[in-house]
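Exercise: predict the fold of this chain.
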Amino acid sequence: MLATLALARSVLTALPGFPPVVVRGQEADPGGEEGVVIDRVADTGVGMYGRAASTKRMQVTVFAQTAERALNLTSEVRAALAEAGFTYLGSRPALDGAGELSEYRR
């Protein structure tokens, strides 16, 4: 799983003019007005359906000064990760305001 998170981080940090990208639990928060946080997703419901828990799902949260900017950055993330072989699963607004939380599988 760490290799998946590292790949996503390297893809996103290669984007020109992109805000700081950190992997939760691996790097310190760089602060600032904008940022991207990559984290693992705990898939606790799959056991009920006879499947093993996923180790390939990740969550990408984009924080920005406005919701519009967060959505624009989320679109850039989605395009870049799709090129790297990640499958987009869905998005929802982050709980704390101007942010967008998306899930991907690789």
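Check your answer against the key: The CA atoms of residues 78 and 88 lie 7 Å apart.
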